[in-house]
Protein backbone atom coordinates (compact mmCIF):
# COMPACT_ATOMS: atom_id res chain seq x y z
CA UNK A 1 0.00 0.00 0.00
CA UNK A 2 1.12 3.52 -0.75
CA UNK A 3 -0.74 6.75 -0.10
CA UNK A 4 -1.22 7.07 -3.85
CA UNK A 5 -3.17 3.85 -4.26
CA UNK A 6 -6.86 4.43 -4.75
CA UNK A 7 -9.11 2.95 -2.10
CA UNK A 8 -10.56 0.61 -4.73
CA UNK A 9 -7.10 -0.69 -5.72
CA UNK A 10 -6.17 -1.25 -2.10
CA UNK A 11 -9.42 -3.07 -1.23
CA UNK A 12 -9.27 -5.24 -4.36
CA UNK A 13 -5.66 -6.29 -3.87
CA UNK A 14 -6.33 -6.91 -0.18
CA UNK A 15 -9.29 -9.17 -1.02
CA UNK A 16 -7.30 -11.11 -3.64
CA UNK A 17 -4.89 -13.92 -2.92
CA UNK A 18 -1.93 -11.68 -3.73
CA UNK A 19 0.67 -12.13 -0.96
CA UNK A 20 0.54 -8.43 0.00
CA UNK A 21 -1.14 -6.39 1.39
CA UNK A 22 -2.46 -8.60 4.17
CA UNK A 23 -3.46 -8.26 7.80
CA UNK A 24 -0.38 -6.20 8.66
CA UNK A 25 -1.09 -3.53 6.05
CA UNK A 26 -4.78 -3.50 6.99
CA UNK A 27 -3.87 -2.94 10.64
CA UNK A 28 -1.53 -0.09 9.74
CA UNK A 29 -4.23 1.52 7.58
CA UNK A 30 -6.69 1.25 10.48
CA UNK A 31 -4.10 3.12 12.56
CA UNK A 32 -3.78 5.83 9.90
CA UNK A 33 -7.57 6.31 9.78
CA UNK A 34 -7.70 6.51 13.59
CA UNK A 35 -4.88 9.07 13.69
CA UNK A 36 -6.64 11.10 10.95
CA UNK A 37 -9.84 11.15 13.02
CA UNK A 38 -7.84 12.42 15.99
CA UNK A 39 -6.36 15.08 13.71
CA UNK A 40 -9.86 16.12 12.67
CA UNK A 41 -10.81 16.59 16.32
CA UNK A 42 -7.80 18.88 16.89
CA UNK A 43 -8.69 20.86 13.73
CA UNK A 44 -12.28 21.31 14.93
CA UNK A 45 -11.01 22.55 18.31
CA UNK A 46 -8.16 24.88 17.29
CA UNK A 47 -9.26 28.48 16.69
CA UNK A 48 -12.46 28.17 18.75
CA UNK A 49 -12.76 30.81 21.50
CA UNK A 50 -14.28 28.28 23.92
CA UNK A 51 -11.15 26.12 23.68
CA UNK A 52 -8.54 28.92 23.62
CA UNK A 53 -6.91 27.68 26.85
CA UNK A 54 -5.99 24.31 25.28
CA UNK A 55 -4.92 25.71 21.90
CA UNK A 56 -1.21 25.15 22.46
CA UNK A 57 -1.60 21.52 23.56
CA UNK A 58 -4.08 20.95 20.74
CA UNK A 59 -1.56 22.22 18.20
CA UNK A 60 1.09 19.84 19.58
CA UNK A 61 -1.32 16.90 19.38
CA UNK A 62 -2.25 17.82 15.83
CA UNK A 63 1.41 17.65 14.84
CA UNK A 64 1.94 14.37 16.67
CA UNK A 65 -1.14 12.85 15.05
CA UNK A 66 -0.01 13.94 11.60
CA UNK A 67 3.35 12.36 12.21
CA UNK A 68 1.67 9.17 13.50
CA UNK A 69 -0.53 9.05 10.40
CA UNK A 70 2.53 9.23 8.17
CA UNK A 71 4.24 6.56 10.27
CA UNK A 72 1.26 4.21 9.94
CA UNK A 73 1.30 4.62 6.14
CA UNK A 74 5.05 4.00 6.12
CA UNK A 75 4.55 0.87 8.25
CA UNK A 76 1.88 -0.45 5.85
CA UNK A 77 4.50 -0.22 3.11
CA UNK A 78 7.22 -1.69 5.35
CA UNK A 79 4.97 -4.65 6.12
CA UNK A 80 4.85 -5.47 2.41
CA UNK A 81 8.61 -5.05 2.04
CA UNK A 82 9.54 -7.52 4.78
CA UNK A 83 7.22 -10.17 3.36
CA UNK A 84 8.96 -10.87 0.04
CA UNK A 85 12.38 -11.92 1.44
CA UNK A 86 10.66 -14.06 4.09
CA UNK A 87 8.50 -15.81 1.48
CA UNK A 88 11.57 -16.33 -0.73
CA UNK A 89 13.38 -18.00 2.17
CA UNK A 90 10.94 -20.91 2.29
CA UNK A 91 12.08 -22.15 -1.11
CA UNK A 92 15.81 -22.11 -0.30
CA UNK A 93 17.52 -25.54 -0.47
CA UNK A 94 17.91 -27.41 2.84
CA UNK A 95 20.20 -30.37 1.93
CA UNK A 96 23.81 -29.89 3.00
CA UNK A 97 24.92 -28.66 6.42
CA UNK A 98 25.97 -25.39 4.81
CA UNK A 99 22.54 -24.94 3.17
CA UNK A 100 20.77 -25.71 6.43
CA UNK A 101 22.89 -23.19 8.30
CA UNK A 102 22.27 -20.49 5.69
CA UNK A 103 18.53 -21.10 5.47
CA UNK A 104 18.09 -21.20 9.25
CA UNK A 105 19.99 -17.95 9.66
CA UNK A 106 18.08 -16.16 6.89
CA UNK A 107 14.72 -17.45 8.13
CA UNK A 108 15.50 -16.21 11.62
CA UNK A 109 16.57 -12.78 10.37
CA UNK A 110 13.50 -12.39 8.16
CA UNK A 111 11.07 -13.63 10.81
CA UNK A 112 12.50 -11.09 13.22
CA UNK A 113 12.17 -8.26 10.66
CA UNK A 114 8.58 -9.36 9.93
CA UNK A 115 7.78 -9.31 13.68
CA UNK A 116 9.26 -5.88 14.28
CA UNK A 117 6.97 -4.10 11.79
CA UNK A 118 3.73 -5.08 13.62
CA UNK A 119 5.49 -4.33 16.93
CA UNK A 120 6.04 -0.78 15.60
CA UNK A 121 2.38 -0.56 14.52
CA UNK A 122 1.46 -1.49 18.10
CA UNK A 123 3.82 1.10 19.61
CA UNK A 124 2.38 3.83 17.37
CA UNK A 125 -1.12 2.71 18.35
CA UNK A 126 -0.24 3.13 22.03
CA UNK A 127 1.01 6.66 21.33
CA UNK A 128 -2.16 7.49 19.41
CA UNK A 129 -4.38 6.17 22.23
CA UNK A 130 -2.69 8.42 24.76
CA UNK A 131 -3.43 11.46 22.60
CA UNK A 132 -7.03 10.35 22.03
CA UNK A 133 -7.45 10.12 25.79
CA UNK A 134 -6.50 13.80 26.04
CA UNK A 135 -8.80 14.73 23.14
CA UNK A 136 -11.68 12.98 24.87
CA UNK A 137 -11.18 15.35 27.82
CA UNK A 138 -10.15 18.55 26.10
CA UNK A 139 -11.30 18.42 22.47
CA UNK A 140 -14.39 20.16 21.07
CA UNK A 141 -17.61 18.64 22.40
CA UNK A 142 -18.92 18.81 18.82
CA UNK A 143 -16.39 16.17 17.76
CA UNK A 144 -16.47 13.82 20.72
CA UNK A 145 -18.13 11.04 18.70
CA UNK A 146 -15.16 11.13 16.32
CA UNK A 147 -12.83 10.48 19.26
CA UNK A 148 -14.95 7.38 19.92
CA UNK A 149 -14.63 6.19 16.32
CA UNK A 150 -10.89 6.98 16.28
CA UNK A 151 -10.38 4.89 19.42
CA UNK A 152 -12.06 1.90 17.77
CA UNK A 153 -9.83 2.19 14.70
CA UNK A 154 -6.66 2.43 16.78
CA UNK A 155 -7.82 -0.49 18.92
CA UNK A 156 -8.25 -2.50 15.69
CA UNK A 157 -4.73 -1.51 14.59
CA UNK A 158 -3.30 -2.72 17.92
CA UNK A 159 -5.24 -5.99 18.11
CA UNK A 160 -4.82 -6.61 14.39
CA UNK A 161 -1.06 -6.08 14.42
CA UNK A 162 -0.46 -8.48 17.31
CA UNK A 163 -1.74 -11.32 15.08
CA UNK A 164 1.25 -10.71 12.78
CA UNK A 165 3.62 -10.68 15.73
CA UNK A 166 2.38 -14.15 16.75
CA UNK A 167 2.52 -15.75 13.29
CA UNK A 168 6.13 -14.65 12.87
CA UNK A 169 7.46 -15.33 16.37
CA UNK A 170 5.83 -18.77 16.21
CA UNK A 171 8.39 -20.01 13.66
CA UNK A 172 11.44 -18.38 15.28
CA UNK A 173 14.11 -20.78 16.59
CA UNK A 174 15.37 -18.26 19.15
CA UNK A 175 12.58 -18.94 21.68
CA UNK A 176 13.98 -16.45 24.18
CA UNK A 177 13.66 -13.62 21.64
CA UNK A 178 10.24 -14.90 20.52
CA UNK A 179 8.91 -15.00 24.10
CA UNK A 180 10.33 -11.55 24.77
CA UNK A 181 8.52 -10.10 21.73
CA UNK A 182 5.26 -11.91 22.56
CA UNK A 183 5.36 -10.72 26.16
CA UNK A 184 6.00 -7.13 25.07
CA UNK A 185 3.16 -7.36 22.51
CA UNK A 186 0.77 -8.92 25.05
CA UNK A 187 1.48 -6.12 27.53
CA UNK A 188 0.59 -3.55 24.86
CA UNK A 189 -2.61 -5.45 23.99
CA UNK A 190 -3.66 -5.55 27.63
CA UNK A 191 -2.83 -1.94 28.46
CA UNK A 192 -4.04 -0.61 25.12
CA UNK A 193 -7.38 -2.39 25.01
CA UNK A 194 -8.13 -1.32 28.59
CA UNK A 195 -7.33 2.28 27.73
CA UNK A 196 -9.30 2.15 24.45
CA UNK A 197 -12.33 0.63 26.21
CA UNK A 198 -12.19 3.26 28.96
CA UNK A 199 -12.04 6.17 26.49
CA UNK A 200 -14.81 4.66 24.36
CA UNK A 201 -17.01 4.06 27.40
CA UNK A 202 -16.60 7.67 28.47
CA UNK A 203 -17.49 8.98 25.00
CA UNK A 204 -20.50 6.67 24.75
CA UNK A 205 -21.84 7.63 28.16
CA UNK A 206 -21.48 11.30 27.25
CA UNK A 207 -23.34 10.87 23.98
CA UNK A 208 -26.21 8.87 25.40
CA UNK A 209 -26.73 11.15 28.40
CA UNK B 1 -15.29 9.03 0.00
CA UNK B 2 -15.45 7.16 -3.26
CA UNK B 3 -13.51 4.09 -4.29
CA UNK B 4 -11.53 6.29 -6.66
CA UNK B 5 -10.13 8.59 -3.98
CA UNK B 6 -6.50 7.88 -3.23
CA UNK B 7 -5.76 6.81 0.32
CA UNK B 8 -3.79 10.03 0.81
CA UNK B 9 -6.74 12.19 -0.30
CA UNK B 10 -9.10 10.32 1.97
CA UNK B 11 -6.81 10.53 5.01
CA UNK B 12 -6.06 14.21 4.46
CA UNK B 13 -9.68 15.24 4.04
CA UNK B 14 -10.64 13.09 7.03
CA UNK B 15 -8.01 14.80 9.20
CA UNK B 16 -9.08 18.28 8.07
CA UNK B 17 -12.01 20.24 9.46
CA UNK B 18 -14.00 19.63 6.27
CA UNK B 19 -17.52 18.52 7.29
CA UNK B 20 -17.17 15.19 5.45
CA UNK B 21 -15.87 12.51 5.61
CA UNK B 22 -16.13 12.02 9.36
CA UNK B 23 -16.60 9.17 11.81
CA UNK B 24 -19.40 7.60 9.74
CA UNK B 25 -17.28 7.32 6.59
CA UNK B 26 -14.31 6.06 8.62
CA UNK B 27 -16.50 3.35 10.17
CA UNK B 28 -17.79 2.28 6.76
CA UNK B 29 -14.23 2.12 5.39
CA UNK B 30 -13.19 -0.04 8.37
CA UNK B 31 -16.05 -2.36 7.39
CA UNK B 32 -14.86 -2.47 3.78
CA UNK B 33 -11.31 -3.36 4.88
CA UNK B 34 -12.65 -6.08 7.18
CA UNK B 35 -14.82 -7.53 4.41
CA UNK B 36 -11.83 -7.44 2.02
CA UNK B 37 -9.74 -9.39 4.55
CA UNK B 38 -12.51 -11.98 4.77
CA UNK B 39 -12.52 -12.13 0.97
CA UNK B 40 -8.77 -12.75 1.00
CA UNK B 41 -9.28 -15.71 3.34
CA UNK B 42 -11.84 -17.25 0.96
CA UNK B 43 -9.48 -16.70 -1.98
CA UNK B 44 -6.63 -18.41 -0.11
CA UNK B 45 -8.92 -21.38 0.66
CA UNK B 46 -10.70 -21.91 -2.67
CA UNK B 47 -8.88 -24.27 -5.03
CA UNK B 48 -6.86 -25.98 -2.27
CA UNK B 49 -7.25 -29.77 -2.21
CA UNK B 50 -7.24 -29.83 1.60
CA UNK B 51 -10.33 -27.59 1.67
CA UNK B 52 -12.20 -29.15 -1.27
CA UNK B 53 -15.15 -30.15 0.94
CA UNK B 54 -15.91 -26.50 1.86
CA UNK B 55 -15.31 -25.08 -1.63
CA UNK B 56 -18.98 -24.45 -2.36
CA UNK B 57 -19.66 -22.63 0.92
CA UNK B 58 -16.38 -20.72 0.52
CA UNK B 59 -17.47 -19.51 -2.93
CA UNK B 60 -20.78 -18.29 -1.50
CA UNK B 61 -19.01 -16.43 1.31
CA UNK B 62 -16.62 -14.85 -1.18
CA UNK B 63 -19.56 -13.48 -3.13
CA UNK B 64 -21.30 -12.24 0.01
CA UNK B 65 -18.12 -10.56 1.24
CA UNK B 66 -17.61 -8.86 -2.10
CA UNK B 67 -21.14 -7.57 -1.97
CA UNK B 68 -20.65 -6.41 1.64
CA UNK B 69 -17.46 -4.60 0.64
CA UNK B 70 -19.32 -2.72 -2.09
CA UNK B 71 -22.13 -1.94 0.35
CA UNK B 72 -19.69 -0.50 2.89
CA UNK B 73 -18.15 1.76 0.22
CA UNK B 74 -21.64 2.84 -0.85
CA UNK B 75 -22.53 3.59 2.78
CA UNK B 76 -19.38 5.71 3.22
CA UNK B 77 -20.65 7.81 0.32
CA UNK B 78 -24.23 7.82 1.62
CA UNK B 79 -22.97 9.07 4.99
CA UNK B 80 -21.54 12.14 3.26
CA UNK B 81 -24.71 12.70 1.26
CA UNK B 82 -27.05 12.80 4.27
CA UNK B 83 -24.82 15.29 6.07
CA UNK B 84 -25.20 18.31 3.78
CA UNK B 85 -29.02 18.68 4.00
CA UNK B 86 -28.85 18.16 7.78
CA UNK B 87 -26.15 20.83 8.18
CA UNK B 88 -28.16 23.20 5.92
CA UNK B 89 -31.22 22.73 8.14
CA UNK B 90 -29.52 24.36 11.14
CA UNK B 91 -29.43 27.73 9.39
CA UNK B 92 -33.11 27.75 8.39
CA UNK B 93 -35.16 30.62 9.90
CA UNK B 94 -37.12 29.82 13.07
CA UNK B 95 -39.34 32.91 13.58
CA UNK B 96 -42.95 32.44 12.51
CA UNK B 97 -45.10 29.43 13.40
CA UNK B 98 -44.86 28.30 9.78
CA UNK B 99 -41.05 28.54 9.80
CA UNK B 100 -40.85 26.63 13.07
CA UNK B 101 -43.08 23.88 11.71
CA UNK B 102 -41.06 23.58 8.50
CA UNK B 103 -37.68 23.58 10.25
CA UNK B 104 -38.80 21.05 12.87
CA UNK B 105 -40.14 18.74 10.20
CA UNK B 106 -37.03 18.98 8.01
CA UNK B 107 -34.68 18.55 10.99
CA UNK B 108 -36.55 15.44 12.03
CA UNK B 109 -36.46 13.97 8.53
CA UNK B 110 -32.75 14.68 8.08
CA UNK B 111 -31.81 13.40 11.55
CA UNK B 112 -33.64 10.17 10.78
CA UNK B 113 -31.86 9.80 7.42
CA UNK B 114 -28.50 10.50 9.13
CA UNK B 115 -29.26 7.82 11.75
CA UNK B 116 -30.27 5.18 9.24
CA UNK B 117 -26.93 5.19 7.39
CA UNK B 118 -24.89 4.14 10.46
CA UNK B 119 -27.67 1.67 11.34
CA UNK B 120 -27.06 0.08 7.91
CA UNK B 121 -23.30 0.05 8.53
CA UNK B 122 -24.02 -1.84 11.76
CA UNK B 123 -26.33 -4.33 10.03
CA UNK B 124 -23.71 -5.03 7.36
CA UNK B 125 -21.09 -5.46 10.12
CA UNK B 126 -23.27 -8.09 11.79
CA UNK B 127 -23.55 -9.96 8.48
CA UNK B 128 -19.80 -9.79 7.98
CA UNK B 129 -19.12 -11.09 11.51
CA UNK B 130 -21.28 -14.14 10.91
CA UNK B 131 -19.27 -15.01 7.81
CA UNK B 132 -15.96 -14.41 9.61
CA UNK B 133 -17.11 -16.85 12.31
CA UNK B 134 -17.46 -19.52 9.60
CA UNK B 135 -14.10 -18.61 8.07
CA UNK B 136 -12.45 -18.98 11.48
CA UNK B 137 -13.68 -22.60 11.53
CA UNK B 138 -13.41 -23.58 7.89
CA UNK B 139 -10.96 -21.22 6.16
CA UNK B 140 -7.34 -22.05 5.33
CA UNK B 141 -5.19 -22.38 8.47
CA UNK B 142 -2.56 -20.30 6.61
CA UNK B 143 -4.87 -17.28 6.74
CA UNK B 144 -6.36 -17.59 10.21
CA UNK B 145 -4.51 -14.50 11.46
CA UNK B 146 -6.24 -12.47 8.73
CA UNK B 147 -9.61 -13.60 10.09
CA UNK B 148 -8.48 -12.14 13.41
CA UNK B 149 -7.53 -8.81 11.85
CA UNK B 150 -10.76 -8.73 9.82
CA UNK B 151 -12.81 -9.26 12.97
CA UNK B 152 -11.12 -6.27 14.62
CA UNK B 153 -11.87 -4.05 11.62
CA UNK B 154 -15.52 -5.11 11.51
CA UNK B 155 -15.80 -4.62 15.26
CA UNK B 156 -14.47 -1.08 14.77
CA UNK B 157 -17.05 -0.47 12.02
CA UNK B 158 -19.85 -1.60 14.35
CA UNK B 159 -18.70 0.32 17.44
CA UNK B 160 -17.72 3.34 15.36
CA UNK B 161 -21.04 3.55 13.54
CA UNK B 162 -23.11 3.44 16.73
CA UNK B 163 -21.54 6.78 17.74
CA UNK B 164 -23.24 8.36 14.71
CA UNK B 165 -26.54 6.75 15.58
CA UNK B 166 -26.39 8.37 19.05
CA UNK B 167 -25.41 11.87 17.90
CA UNK B 168 -28.33 11.95 15.48
CA UNK B 169 -31.03 10.31 17.59
CA UNK B 170 -30.04 12.64 20.45
CA UNK B 171 -31.56 15.66 18.68
CA UNK B 172 -34.68 13.89 17.39
CA UNK B 173 -38.01 15.18 18.77
CA UNK B 174 -39.73 11.84 18.18
CA UNK B 175 -38.33 10.19 21.31
CA UNK B 176 -40.17 6.93 20.66
CA UNK B 177 -38.43 6.56 17.30
CA UNK B 178 -35.10 7.66 18.81
CA UNK B 179 -35.32 5.12 21.65
CA UNK B 180 -36.31 2.42 19.19
CA UNK B 181 -33.23 3.10 17.03
CA UNK B 182 -30.92 3.33 20.05
CA UNK B 183 -32.23 0.06 21.47
CA UNK B 184 -31.79 -1.69 18.13
CA UNK B 185 -28.26 -0.28 17.79
CA UNK B 186 -27.37 -1.25 21.38
CA UNK B 187 -28.52 -4.81 20.76
CA UNK B 188 -26.24 -5.03 17.72
CA UNK B 189 -23.32 -3.59 19.73
CA UNK B 190 -23.83 -6.13 22.49
CA UNK B 191 -24.31 -9.16 20.26
CA UNK B 192 -21.68 -8.08 17.73
CA UNK B 193 -18.91 -7.26 20.18
CA UNK B 194 -19.46 -10.57 22.01
CA UNK B 195 -19.26 -12.47 18.72
CA UNK B 196 -16.21 -10.48 17.55
CA UNK B 197 -14.42 -11.07 20.86
CA UNK B 198 -15.21 -14.79 20.76
CA UNK B 199 -13.89 -15.21 17.20
CA UNK B 200 -10.79 -13.13 17.98
CA UNK B 201 -10.10 -15.10 21.17
CA UNK B 202 -10.31 -18.37 19.23
CA UNK B 203 -7.91 -17.12 16.54
CA UNK B 204 -5.48 -15.78 19.13
CA UNK B 205 -5.44 -18.98 21.16
CA UNK B 206 -4.80 -20.97 17.98
CA UNK B 207 -1.90 -18.76 16.95
CA UNK B 208 -0.20 -18.74 20.33
CA UNK B 209 -0.55 -22.50 20.89
From TrEMBL, chains A, B:
**InterPro entries per record:** Cyclodeamin/CycHdrlase (IPR007044), Formintransfe-cycloase-like_sf (IPR036178)
In its keyword annotation, does this UniProt entry include Transport?
no
Please give the superkingdom of this protein's source: Bacteria
Q: Which UniProt keywords apply?
A: Coiled coil
User: Where does the record place a coiled coil?
Assistant: 51-78
Q: Which GO terms describe its molecular function?
A: catalytic activity
Cyclodeaminase/cyclohydrolase domain residues are: 6-186
Name the record gives this protein:
Cyclodeaminase/cyclohydrolase family protein
- Organism whose genome encodes this protein: Candidatus Caccovicinus merdipullorum
